[in-house]
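User: I'm new to structure prediction. If I give you an amino acid sequence, what do you actually give back? Let's try with this one:
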Amino acid sequence: MSALLKRHLEPFEKYFRRKGIIEICINEPGIVWLETTQGWEKRKDAKMTLKNLNFMAQVLATQQGQKFSENIPLLSTSIPEWGYRIQIVGGALSESGISISIRIAQAQRFGLEDYMPKKETKKLQKAVEQKKTILIAGGTGSGKTTFLNSLIRYIPEETRLVVI
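Assistant: Good question. You get back a string of structure tokens that encode the predicted 3D arrangement of the chain. For your 164 residues, that looks like this:
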């Protein structure tokens, strides 16, 4: 991560390091919404100005080989060294000038047996081994990514995947 990006991400680090955070949302400058394991919290944060957030988005986009500007006001990427997914909507597409959502990866890992009975787990493992197409669908925050992280363990390392 470049020193410039690191500097622009500093205001976020206290949230990145806090345990129990699931998502960080900024729908207007100066206000940070935190989805935690206990529910939503609203925080005032003077460092989250429109100017600072736009600079952070531009630097992040540049480092990730993308662009973010008034003419290209959408950015979807991940934050280097943290791996968190981030979506940014700016300019005229956002009523407040910028909207940011950062999905925090959960450290806890689950096995397939945490989701279903052992008999069903074996069926799913067999489907993966047979290279069957499997659709995972659900609402925001329903656990799709966490479930896929459990499922991916059963894909042999030498197997090539193309996902769209």
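You can read the tokens as a compact description of the fold. Here is one thing that stands out. DSSP finds four helices and six strands in the chain.
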